[in-house]
Design goal:
A two-stranded antiparallel sheet has the order 1-4. It has a two-stranded antiparallel ribbon with strand order 2-3. A two-stranded antiparallel sheet has the order 5-6. The protein is elongated and about 100 Å long. Helices cover 41% and strands 10% of the residues. It starts with a helix and ends in a 21-residue tail after the last strand.
Amino acid sequence: MKRVRVIVASLFFAAMTWVFVDFAGKSPEWMRHAIPHIGSYAAIVVWAVLALLLGRVFCSFICPFGILQDVIGRFAPKKWRKHHYSKSYNWLRYSLLAICAVFLILGIATPLLVLDPYSNFGRIAVNIFRPLVMEGNNGLNWIALKFNNYDFYNITIYTVTTLSFLSALVVLLLVGAMALLRGRLFCNTICPVGSLLGLFSRFSLFRIALDESCTKCGLCARACKSECINSKEGTIDASRCVACFNCLGKCKKEKAIHYKWAISPPKPLKGELKNSLSGNKSPLEGVGGSRRSFLLASAAMATTLPLIQGCVKAVAKEIDTTKLTPITPPGSVSLQHFKEKCTACHLCITHCPQQILKPAGFEFGIDYAFKPHLTFYEMAFCNYNCTVCADVCPFHAIVPFQDKDEAGISKEKQTTQIGIAQFDKSLCIVFKENTSCGACSEHCPVQAVRMEPYGDSGLTLPHVYDDLCIGCGGCESICPVRPIKAINILANEVHQRAHAPQEEEAKEVDAESLDFGF
């Protein structure tokens, strides 16, 4: 059973990692649409039912963050891999679960930004693993060019900021340290998904159990990365067991421990929440565990806090005062909706074909930190027909467009106004240098920017028609003015509906009458 778990976990982990680090769009379309929704709210119901039947198999078979901890744990010295039974921090794990539940009921996803295993894995994959893969590609490209091989091409990393990289690195180091020292301590102490599934796995129909023939040698407890096997008392905390099956192969006495049908509820363990809240005992009494474990757990609750003081000054220098409101992706409905639903998993950042989605720092406030926003200054604009970010978002922070035709084109997307272009005449090179330009008008897909006569010089200046503009950034991305562009997109806090551009009638042209110069 352990071999089955390793094979299934490896396949899921490879597929999930590929979806997050895929910079070239090579992953199959079905995978890009199916794999991300493993961590969605709807999928949690499936995993809860599965936990009620088979235990917390999600945590060891499917969860990418849990599997990542197992991978890290494999590099621990052998003496660190010898675990021992420890009493659970139920007061902490269920308090965090309750906090997350209350915030979600209120429509606020902020606690999940720090605690959700799917989102944490996404930020680590996008901000650490993906850049490493991209730099590896660039290295192969450099080597291939030496041999006149052009199968590779150089990639520039646009979407990783210093803050997003550091925050992902802090989470990786903290959770990695917990995995090296205490196995699945994060999953059984902090993770709200693990705590929720633990409520169901306590009564799972199939679970790990000890027989009366157990000699209490403790070999199974030393192999348990969840530290939930109390071999001395012959009990197993089913709420913390992640069904890794490491213990099954360690027992020297055949079938003294096994995975079996066990319909009777598990015996409560000493120090669990039920006992700690009974009588006159303090909730903190009898919790057990070492001081080091508690410090690690507390530190992981504030994974982003150590970064704030060190990064605020650096981020403040990069703030564009013309854009104090983030431009949220088409389909995100409004700034408030996006703040409440987005958990900053960064999947949309990976799959944006134009690479214009970028993780925010603290320039839009702490409640928007690490969430994606659109930037048009550096390279590109939001494609007129593209709906990729809405298609891959697992939490419906970006709501999918439902009116697509056979070609996958959405009329609703084409008229969704995420912002409006603002033109500053004093910065335009037509006004400043008395020369013609018109790049913004030529680049506008909806005819919202039109060149109109300016003075008696025969030159023309851009004019923005707000009712047509969709805020795609085509004009801003092409504007040659630096450092502040003459035309910028300012966000709509609530997305509006723009008028569809008028289609010009096709004119019949006699091709034979045209002179192409040859």
